[in-house]
Each structure stands twice: as structure tokens, then as C-alpha cells.
Amino acid sequence: MPARKTSLTALELEQGIRGGVRAVLAKAITLAESTHARDQKKIRAVLKRLLPLTGNAIRIGITGVPGVGKSTFIEAFGEVLTRLGKKVAVLTVDPTSQKTKGSILGDKTRMEKLSRNPSVFIRPSPTGTALGGVTYHTREAMLLCEAAGFDVILIETVGVGQSETIVRNMVDFFLLLMLAGAGDELQGIKKGIMEMADGILITKADGNNVKAANEAKADALQALHFQQTPISGWKVKVLTVSSLENKGIEEAWRMIQEYDSHARHSGYLEINRGEQQVKWVDESLEQTFRQELESPKLTRIKSHLINKIRKHDMLPSEAADELWRAIGSKKR
Ligand SMILES: Nc1nc2c(ncn2[C@@H]2O[C@H](COP(=O)(O)OP(=O)(O)O)[C@@H](O)[C@H]2O)c(=O)[nH]1
Ligand SMILES: [Mg+2]
Fold first, then answer.
1. Which residues, chain by chain, have CB under 5 Å from ion ligand 2?
2. What CATH number corresponds to the domain at position 160?
3. Domain count, the chain
4. Most confident option among 50-54, 116-120, 154-158, 188-192
5. 50 in Cβ contact with 28 (< 8 Å)
6. What is the pLDDT of residues 96-108, one digit of tens each?
7. 66 ligand 1 Cβ < 6 A
8. Which ligand 1 atom lies nearest to the CA of residue 209?
């Protein structure tokens, strides 16, 4: 996706971000989202100079099925955090929004109050981009927000495709939101997702739903009981919350702070972030490869090769070799 035209130089971008100027931060993220080589070169130069300013935020991923209450929770959570003097950046990774566009609109209205809060920066993911692209640039967006002085980064993602795993690989704390509804609900949760969580919130624990929420909490604890202790050594916690009634929101923050001090003292935070950087290399490589493979030139070569395969003139493995060579020759 091409970046909107920006006249800012790399130096202006760097200085603007150092000064915490939102408009400049927004422009820098737009550049990071661009697939144009020129834009990438520029934003990488900026990012490299800003790297010493990054890494100081608590990075929190927030996931759960659509409708579980992620955006509403972020709104309530963001208010609590800013009242404590925190500067909060919200990045959303929503692959479903490409199709419907509805969820982004929904998020905007749901986070309306938060978006007017001067200590908050909200950035929805660009629409019409491949999932890999969106999440890949989310890392850069996160670093840019840290350099701009944000202390808490919230990344909202929905339980679609690979997005959870990718977001899990870029945050310190992964928060899973679940609806009450007991046994059925637990089964509805994608396999493996509970293993990724550092904390679980049972949402909408208000009105007639309080009892069901407490039951869901007990079920979740039971399920966790059979899980191996994560390598972080952290015991996963389950809380009930009501974002509408502001219940459990501060407790959720306390849980994350507790995790943060645990992970810092044990050295796990640093180890984890180091491993995440290695994954970033791998993901970037995959992303580059995928982009090359989808280029018009490669697409043409590929359809030509597929014709040969159909005529029994070529083995699929030979076609793969040829495509690999075509990518190589393009590079040099
Ligand atoms: N009763 C109740 N409803 C909630 C709560 N949080 C969210 N909702 C409702 O659940 C629906 C989906 O919320 P939303 O935050 O958009 O979910 P998301 O798709 O996970 O981001 C909305 O209609 C919200 O008003 C809550 O704490 N209590
Ligand atoms: Mg949402």
C-alpha cells in the first residue's frame, strides 16, 4: 500500500517523534505501512536512530473472539491508565476489517471517549493489506510509539488466522478475553489459545451475567490447571471484569504490573524480547519472500511453469527451483 505523500525528511520525522508530536508519529506509521522501497528505506533510517528510545513501554496484546468486548475494555482500561499518568498507544490488528470495514467503524465509536483523551494515541490497522503486512508493520508502529514516549502499548487483535501468534510474538503480556457461557464457550475458543495467554479476563461480568462469569472463571482455572507452567514461570491469572461498570479494570492492571515485575526480576522479559527479535527476522524474511512471489513478474513465470507441469514437462519441485532462481536474479 503506497504511503500518503509526506514531505517530511527523515530528520524532521525523527525530531517530531522525539518531541512526541502525534501528527508526525501518524505520518511515520503510514510510511512504515508502505510497501514502497523508498518509504521503507526512509522509515528504517528513522527507526534506527530512534532505537535507543524504544523498549521502555509495557507491551500488551489483547485478543478474543469478535464481540467479546476488547474495544470496550480498552476504552475503560485506557481511562484507568491515563488517570495513573500513563501515556497509552492503541494499535489494532483486525484482519476482518478488510472485508466488512464494520469493525473499525465500531471501534471508533466504541473508543470515542478514549480517542479524545490527550494522553492516548489510537491507530487502526490499514485496511486492504495482507495480514502478514499489517502485523509486520505493527512492530514498527509499536517502536515508533515507544520512541514518542508512550508507556503502555495495547495491541488489539481478533482470533482470526495467524494474527494471535504474530501478536503474541511482539508483546510482553498476552491478555485473552473470554465470554461467560461456561463449557460451550471454552470449546469455542481456538485450540492452543489458552496456552498463549498470560492472563484471562472473563468479560461482561455485570447484571444477570455475574454468576455465569464466575462459573466461567472457575472453568478457565480448571482448564489452566491441566496446562504446563509456562517458561516464564508465571502462574496465569483469571479475573472477571465489567468494562461498562468499570469493575475489575484496575485489578487487570495490577495483574499486568505484577507480571511485569516478575518478568523483569527473573530476566525473562529480556530473554523473551531477544527471542522476539529473532522471530521478527524470520517473519520479515517470509514477508519479503511472499511479496516477491506475488509480484507480477513472478506470477507470470509461475503460470508458465504450471502449464509445463500440467503437460508433464516439469516436476513441481523443478518449478520451485526455477522460481527461486528468478527471485535471486531479480535481486542481483
Ligand atoms: N454488558 C456488557 N456489555 C459489554 C461489556 N463490554 C462490551 N460489551 C458489549 O459487547 C459488544 C461488543 O463489544 P466490543 O468492545 O466491540 O467487542 P470486540 O469486538 O471484542 O472489540 C458491544 O455491544 C458492547 O457494548 C461489558 O462489560 N458489559
Ligand atoms: Mg473491537
1. 70-71, 107
2. 3.40.50.300
3. 3
4. 50-54
5. no
6. 544 444 444 555 5
7. yes
8. 1
